[in-house]
Design a protein that fits this description.
about 70% helix, elongated, mainly alpha
Length: about 425
């Protein structure tokens, strides 16, 4: 019974049988079927249950076979009901790994197939299911499948990082904390180099394993717009999220201790200083927050990215301080797109209060006079923000967020031609 099921990209699992005992002989008969039915799979599961209590006395080779087929059957269950398959997925992975473990000291009948075929396909299937769940905004399920992909391949910490991020999005803080703690334990940083190029056939941006492979594809004329991007360390983000989740759970002491331990291990890591500062900001300890911000700035006086990040974490609680940090970042790097957008948005902070007050005014002469004052004040905010967004637009002419902001500003300032220009650039 060589059965093909679709799990993402054609996950092929062939079901064989043991060579002894009545139940195993029955499994062999099922194995010979080319077109198995749902009833065949039900019978297959029943036979596995009958074998289970007898397997303790079996030989290592028979045990390896049992766990191999039990794992394969678990994958079938996953495919049959992806939405409720987290436990089945984890059990299937454990069974397949048990086969590998048993075969370490004996004949390796299944190890190569599991390692080189089944597990990679299983990992691909788990990632695909995670992506589909995320598209449907089922973030908790998405996180579970990313975590399953990591269990298949514990060397790929990026999948566990994805699992943690999805768990946070799904408000599944207990699992998110577990994933982040595991990432910290194994020392995952996410640092590396990303090689991408645009496919001329599909128009999509694709990843390459290394620069040499990318260069060959570009040279052959199949790809264009090759890019080599250094991936920054995610360690600060991981530690920050551990602390923030503890804080979210009301375990502030654990949050502070987690950050303290990370700082001791990495005293010169500016991202951790910022993460700790954000923690104290969240817990409204402004004195400690400002102390840490000052420390970070003193350690890296010429780091534009650092001052941009300081601006981001300070925006809500300390807008004036945030503007100063953005200004510092732009003094170091005048073409820093994100800092331009950040400081531009900061100029619009008082807009809502002004608009709310304007909407409450009547048509009395007194209110009309007040309306004109508020209108000028609002236009003043717009004119202060405009140069930053205009420069950002020159740096990234296709950025839709900047285009939409500029369209709104131009319309409010009655700059009709400029508004029409921006409106024409907006994508549906």
């Amino acid at each position: 019974m060589k059965v093909t099921y679709v799990l993402a990209a054609s996950l092929l699992l062939s079901l064989s049988a043991f060579a002894q005992k009545d139940e195993l002989k029955a499994l062999k008969k099922l194995d010979d079927k080319e077109q198995p039915t749902a009833a065949d799979f039900t019978e297959y599961g029943r036979l596995l249950k009958e074998v289970e209590p007898k397997i303790a006395a079996a030989s290592p080779e028979q045990k390896a076979e049992y766990y191999y087929y039990k794992g394969s059957y678990g994958v079938v269950q996953v495919m049959a009901n992806p939405a409720n398959s987290k436990a089945a997925f984890e059990t299937a992975i454990a069974d397949l790994n048990q086969t590998i473990e048993i075969e370490k000291t004996g004949k390796k009948k299944y190890t190569k197939e599991i390692q080189e075929q089944i597990l990679p396909e299983l990992k691909t299937g788990a990632i695909t299911l995670a992506q589909k769940a995320a598209e449907q905004k089922d973030y908790k399920l998405s996180g579970a499948f990313y975590a399953a992909a990591y269990k298949v391949d514990p060397n790929d910490g990026a999948q566990l990082y994805n699992a943690a991020a999805m768990a946070v999005n799904g408000q599944d803080f207990d699992n998110a904390l577990e994933y982040y703690l595991q990432l910290e334990k194994v020392g995952f940083t996410g640092e590396g180099v990303n090689y991408t190029a645009k496919s001329k056939a599909s128009g999509q941006i694709e990843n390459f394993p290394n620069k040499a492979t990318m260069d060959v594809a570009v040279k052959q004329g199949l790809y264009s717009d090759a890019k080599v991007e250094k991936l920054p360390s995610l360690r600060g983000d991981i530690v920050k999220n551990i602390a923030l989740i503890y804080a979210q759970k009301g375990e502030v002491d654990k949050a502070k201790q987690a950050m303290t331990n990370a700082r001791k291990a990495n005293p010169n890591d500016s991202s951790l200083i910022i993460a700790e500062a954000e923690l104290y900001l969240k817990t409204k300890d402004m004195a400690k927050y400002k102390e840490l911000i000052t420390e970070a700035a003193a350690k890296n006086p010429n780091d534009a990215v650092l001052f941009y990040n300081l601006g981001v974490v300070s925006t809500e609680a300390d807008p004036a301080g945030a503007e100063g940090y953005y200004t510092k970042a732009l003094a170091i790097n005048p073409d820093y797109f994100d800092a331009l957008v950040g400081i531009g948005a900061l100029q619009l902070n008082g807009e809502k209060q002004i608009v709310d007050e304007m909407n409450k005014l009547t048509t009395s002469s007194k209110d009309n006079a007040r309306y004109e004052v508020l209108k000028k004040k609002k236009e003043g905010l717009y004119n202060k923000a405009l140069p930053y967004f205009e420069k950002a637009h020159k740096l990234k002419a296709d950025d839709q967020y900047v285009i939409s902001v500029l369209a709104g500003l131009y319309q409010a300032l009655e700059r009709t031609n400029d508004y029409k220009t921006m409106k024409a650039k907006q994508k549906a």
